[in-house]
Amino acid sequence: MTSMIRRGPAGAPALLVAGTTSDAGKSVIVTGICRWLARQGVKVAPFKAQNMSLNSAVTADGAEIGRAQAAQAAAAGVEPTAAMNPVLLKPGSDRRSQVVVRGRPVGETDALGYREFKDRLRTVAAESLAELRAEYDAVVCEGAGSPAEINLRRGDIANMGLAREAGLPVLVVGDIDRGGVFAAMHGTLALLEPADQALIAGFVVNKFRGAPELLEPGLDMLRRLTGRPVHGVLPWLDGQWLDVEDSLALSGERGPALAPLRGRTLRVAVVRTPRISNFTDIDALAVEPGVDVRFATSPHELDDADLVVLPGSRATVADLAWMRERGLDAAVVDRAGHERPVLGICGGYQMLARTIHDEVESGAGAVPGLGLLPTSVDFAADKTLARPVGSAYGHTVEAYEIHHGLTRIEDEPGTERFLDGCRRRAVWGTTWHGALENDAFRRAFLADVAQCAGRDFVPAPDTDFAAERTARVDALGDMVEQYMDTDALLRLMEQGPPAELPIVPPAGLPAG
Predict the structure, then answer these.
(1) 150-152-156-160 Cα dihedral, nearest 10 degrees
(2) Mean pLDDT value across residues 52-71
(3) Tens digit of pLDDT for each residue in 270-328?
């Protein structure tokens, strides 16, 4: 298949997958296309010029990128690099975000201040895409949000701004499960100026469930109205929640419907704070048979939990204040006082400290923590980015770190070291993300939790999280192969959008 991918003057062929909305399925479809191409022997790379996400990953050389791009690289069978997501925005509040460029934080800004970064970031994005097109046989790009966010078009570097600069053909994906997909697709195209419309090569309908013949009249009318084909109608797939980057994808329950293991279930409640980050730490728990994982935002939702997890946070002090406003802090402290298990990961681990000193993230100075571990936290300007290896319960643990806070552990009786963190009775804390993906460690930890909680629960001996992740990625590759016009995909990547595509009124918006 590699010989069928012909390089052009700009390097490797490339395609941009845009969406009518956030969470329309862009990440999933890019992952599936990468998997399908890799199966054909194509050396393919994912690319997202600008990502806004609190779910990130660390590359082998210590760069921070969006979690979705790391997952897409894994689907492609290649090592993730900073070039695959050159600009990452990590919101710390409704108005301010940390700006990460080529895997390194360069500052905090609000929406207005971000405009000052735009020219530099546009160059960084273009250079990163050119780097990938020089190294790989093909590049599959993912847009951000919607290309029809006309208030943001002038400074756009991730959607039509990128497509225009690089001459990329664009597929627009719509989520039919939301309703109004035809209006969303037609409206997206109509809101674009003519030069942008000329790059929109077709549509993909995502999350369809029902009789295909009922959809066909709508597809025909969309073709007539826009002059563009529908290159695929993708079915609804259950269980594709691994490695999501957007908290929009979170729901009250995590994972598939699970039958109790030999009549026994371990209940896990994850506190869903406003700035929850790297919540994919929980995915490995959710694939365990007999483990019931739910997100919680009120104290009573913790009542029957055997394990409460305080996950990562982009705004530790602010999220801790949010917990106090709702009485969740008291509920967690009460649990620990009754020897009921609590696990804190990264920002959640910081919350368990006696004192948090933060002049960096929140500027709040000294703030009391929950006091459940004999630790104190000092926030540093430099971010720690690493992929550590350690051991716990006699098993090797591979993980990754992304944090500003540095935790000091007091050497007090009854305190045990736990990975890089510590444990005191039924409270565990660590800065390591991804530790629960290590199967043997996860089973040992869950067995310990069950014993502390007085639950008659035994982890399944053969759950393989890496294999589960691979199976789900393979399902996406199968979906692309079966339900998308893959010949058309290859044509678009090699030849670009068809010439003289019709312009859909109303157009004529100001140029970007």
Answers:
(1) -10
(2) 94
(3) 999 999 999 999 999 999 999 999 999 999 999 999 999 999 999 999 999 999 999 99
Note whether 24 and 153 are same-domain residues: yes
By the 8 A CB rule, do 476 and 28 touch? yes
| pLDDT band (50, 70, 90) for residue 122 | very high
Domain count, the chain: 2
pLDDT of residue 384 exceeding 90:
yes
Q: Which of 237, 282, 279 is nearest to 67 (CA)?
A: 279
**CATH code of the domain in which 255 resides:** 3.40.50.880
If asked whether residues 82 and 212 sit together in one domain, one would say yes
For 362: left if phi > 0, alpha if psi spans -120 to 50, otherwise beta; the answer is: alpha
* Mean pLDDT, rounded, for 404-423: 94
Short-list 283, 310, 266, CA closest to 452 = 266
Rounded to 10 deg, the angle between the 439-453 and 465-483 helix axes is 120
Query: Is 189 a residue whose pLDDT tops 90?
Result: yes
Asked if residue 260 and residue 201 are part of one domain, the reply reads: no
Using the predicted structure, report yes or no on whether residue 257 has a pLDDT greater than 60.
Answer: no
Instruction: Please say if 346 is a catalytic residue.
Output: yes
So what's the pLDDT on residue 212? 85
Do 205 and 254 lie in one domain? The reply is no
Give the span between the Cα atoms of 476 and 214, in whole angstroms. Answer: 24
Average pLDDT taken over every residue of the chain: 91
Is the domain of 289 the same as that of 203?
no
Residue 49, domain CATH: 3.40.50.300
Catalytic residue, candidates 186, 231, 433, 452: 433
Domain match, 213 and 337 both: no
Q: Which of 346, 403, 422, 452 is catalytic?
A: 346
Within 8 A by CB and 6+ apart from 390, the residues are 396, 397, 399, 419, 420, 432
Distance between alpha carbon 138 and the CA centroid of its chain, in Å? Answer: 22
Q: Are residues 448 and 358 in the same domain?
A: yes
Position 246 pLDDT exceeds 70: no
Nearest to 66 by CA among 53, 81, 49: 53
Kindly report each contact of residues 327-330 with a partner whose C-beta sits within 8 Å and lies 24 or more positions away, as own/partner.
327/298, 327/299, 328/271, 328/296, 328/297, 328/298, 328/299, 328/302, 329/370, 330/299
Do 336 and 431 lie in one domain? The reply is yes
Would you say the pTM of this structure is higher than 0.85? yes
Burial class (CB in 10 A: 0-12, 13-18, 19+), 165: middle
Instruction: Round to whole Å and give the CA distance between 334 and 349.
Output: 17
Residues 117-142: what's their mean pLDDT?
A: 94
Q: What average pLDDT does this structure show over 98-104? A: 93
Domain assignment of residue 474, yes or no = no
**Residue ranges making up the domain that contains 189:** 2-229+485-495
Q: What is the mean pLDDT of residues 360-384?
A: 93
| Helix or strand (DSSP H, E) at 114 | helix 111-114
The upper half-sphere exposure of residue 70, i.e. CA atoms within 13 Å in the direction of its Cβ, equals 23
